[in-house]
Amino acid sequence: MKTALKFVCLVVAVLVFSAAASAATFSFSNHVGIKISVTLTYFDADSGVLTTKGWWHVEPGGETAITVNADESRDVYYAAYNKNQYVDSVTRKNPQIRRWANPHNFTYTTDEEPYDVGAWHGRFYRIDGTSVSIDERS
Predict the structure, then answer these.
(1) DSSP calls for 46-111
(2) What residue ranges do the domains of the chain occupy?
(3) pLDDT (tens digit per residue) in 86-98
């Protein structure tokens, strides 16, 4: 019985460690004078599917930490938006992808224009490291 209990504890510990290992946290700081909304595109660590999630809000002069289940061996991209797109002047030079997103009720598609009114087609910039400093309009 003790051996079985030790085995169960070991399995639980491995599962907890595996789940924690796939969590990726990114910090976004806002250096423009308005609230910015951030969305991320990444490969989900469990399913391997390209996933887009948002919106997280960053107040002017503030910082927000976002934790997602990203496969960090593959690229993670962000978009920052408030009626216009905003960027980190450093990550602006990074590779980008384009995605559709709705700034009000988050939805997206990569195949065609979404049916949602007010959908936005924006550039998502690859994140290098774990922090992004939004400091200019795109």
Answers:
(1) TT--EEEEEEEEE-TT-EEEEEE-B-TTS--EEEEESSSEEE-TTGGGS-EEEEEE-SSS----SS
(2) 2-137
(3) 999 999 999 998 8
